[in-house]
Design brief:
The protein is of the alpha/beta class and 310 residues long. It is built from 9 helices and 10 strands. Helix 2 crosses helix 8.
Length: 310
């Protein structure tokens, strides 16, 4: 009797163990509903947008931690070091051969704004900034990366000019006080600093005559026009059409972020950026355009099949 029992129970036990082993190979535990996002400075647009994401994600029971940084360059390093899951990064900074970072979405235009002192002369070309004191953005920022590219294109270096790496607030103060001649900043059109400087009669904005040429050279940039009176019709700001050169804000992620979290995240991103804005039409953003990076599999599915795909 005892022998018969063992004869039956041992094979059954072995079968159960085998089924458990096989099942464990295919069934993964539910991912932790947490996301850590690298933004930028607390005064910047990345942080402002990230707060909108955080609110919507937490309504979906996802815990979100926002990390303030110096900007895009630092954000890329945080992704590489696996200290964040997702990061805001200015388009055009990251090498297309990067294997450990994937592209999630292109979310809005980020124009380059070049302000200079109104000394009763007009600057039409970047090369006219030679010999000037120029702030090109904080160390580690996307502004610094883009400004460096453009200045190099025009032969402007530390040898023939004074190039400073200052944040937006400090650059603005020094420009207004006359301690520097010009400042670069890459930010959305609704930046309070942009409007403040455009309103100031002592400050001019550089309308880039060769914006389309730069756009052809650098695939991640586009020429945009800020038309007279667009920002304030009553005050007529700006008081003439301005040729701008624009990059865009991107969302990048580590390849190991769970697909379920990516899908939920992108749904909230769509909610935030789908509306028409100053330079874009309704549903123009977010998108997968203008990137040479590897596109995340879930992002590709989401933007081609929508948020109902299984």
């Amino acid at each position: 009797m005892k022998y018969a029992f063992l004869k039956v129970s041992i094979p059954v036990l072995l079968l159960i163990v085998a089924m458990f082993v096989i099942t464990s190979e295919f069934i993964q535990p539910a991912p932790e509903k947490k996301l850590t996002i690298a933004t930028g400075s607390k005064n910047g647009n990345y942080y402002k947008v990230a707060q909108e994401y955080k609110k919507l994600l937490e309504e979906n029971k996802i815990e979100v931690t926002l990390i303030n940084t110096e900007g895009s360059v630092e954000n890329i390093q945080l992704l590489k070091d696996k200290k964040v899951d997702i990061a805001f990064v200015q388009n055009g900074i990251l090498n297309s051969k990067e294997k450990d970072i994937e592209f999630l979405a292109n979310i809005y235009y980020e124009p380059l704004w070049i302000f200079y002192k109104n000394d009763k002369y007009t600057i039409d070309y970047l090369i006219q900034l030679i010999s000037k004191k120029i702030s090109i953005g904080a160390q580690g920022s996307g502004t610094k990366d883009l400004a460096t590219k453009l200045l190099n294109d025009n032969g402007i270096t530390n040898e023939n000019s004074t190039i400073l790496t200052l944040g937006t607030d400090e650059s603005k103060k020094m420009l207004l006080s006359g301690k520097i001649d010009a400042m670069f900043m890459v930010t959305s059109h609704d930046s309070a600093t942009v409007k403040e400087l455009l309103e100031n009669p002592d400050i001019n904005i550089l309308s880039i005559k060769r914006a389309k040429a730069y756009g052809q050279k650098y695939g991640f940039m586009e020429a945009l026009t800020l038309h007279e009176g667009t920002l304030d019709l009553y005050k007529n700001i700006p008081d003439e059409n301005i040729n701008l050169l624009s990059t865009s804000a991107n969302l990048l992620a580590r390849p190991d972020v769970p697909s379920e979290l990516i899908r939920i995240f992108l749904k909230q991103v769509k909610e935030v950026h789908k509306e028409e804005s100053l330079f874009s039409k309704e549903n123009q953003f977010p998108n997968l355009l203008n990137t040479t990076l590897k596109i995340n599999k879930e992002a590709k599915q989401y933007f081609t099949k929508g948020d109902t795909w299984l």
